[in-house]
Amino acid sequence: KEGVDKSLLIFLGVSTPSAADGSADISAVLNATGQIAELMTSYKIIVTKSTVPVGTHKIVSQWIQSKTEIPFDYVSNPEFLKEGSAVEDFMKPDRVIIGTTNPAVMEIMRELYNPFMRKSSRILFMDPASAEMAKYAANTMLATRISFMNELSMLCEKVGADIEQVRAGMGSDSRIGNAFLFAGVGYGGSCFPKDVRALIYMGKQAGVPMSIAQSVQQVNLDQQARFADQIIDYFKGQSNIQLGVWGLAFKARTDDIRESPALFCIEKFLKAGIKVLAFDPEAMVPTRQKYGHAIDLVDNSYDVLDGSAALVIFTDWQEFRTPDFEQIAKRLRKPVVFDGRNLYTPAFVKRFGIEYHCIGRPC
Prior knowledge:
This protein is α/β, with parallel strands linked by helices. It is about 45% helix and about 10% strand.
């Protein structure tokens, strides 16, 4: 109540997780705006940062109007913060999208963000529906780049090409650029999987099948399964297999394990009767909360090697990029590494007598 009473602008940053049908669940948005509406005693500007389906601006506006006769304006202001660099992204945004058709509200929002625009204005004004769509379009495009590279990596393995060299060739094209072109075990986290699903659902509801987004989703699932199956098949027929795992978070610089490819693969390992000994610099606590003692966790990255038949790398943490290969070769039962992030140069790793398996490269 104090926040509503004292504020002109009220920002919503609540979760919009995937529902069972793939749609985005906006119940938390409706709950929050309902409470705000009931507490309003004067004009407010309601600003949604949450990723919400196209058309939410209408649903929320009607919802607030059903609760109060106090005037208000609604703004769609999707956030584009990356996990691991959110503060930097907030202070130096690539762009700020403001979805409103009210000129007076546009000026208020411009003044709000002006302190972060001293070098150049990067504010884009548009209607609320377009602002809502822009967030889904951006995340799905990035997911598409990842899945395309992962699909290419499968082809590279079959024809003897090197996905890293292909990436360099592609990225040097100024129309393409280098970002999000790394082949690996797949994308995860709280945004890409959820937003791709939601875009697919919106397309179905509108009668416009999102065939590219559907393929992006399937390729990502296939890539994770392919990597896990490769490892399981390698040890087929063997018993008492333990794997040392580096990385549990879906990417470096975060403790977020939501829809992490590491956990997808680890669950397949456990079902195949393979024991897992794992380490992550940040994600140990959420992993323990989720899995209890089904996964053995250690406090030192090299301790996962002891008694393990291979080392499996899932997350590109900086400390995993320049490891002590002599220690890896010495402490593993057999010097085998499955690299799900292509962190190393194959020829260099093999100097230490390590059998090296990577993605989309002649290893």
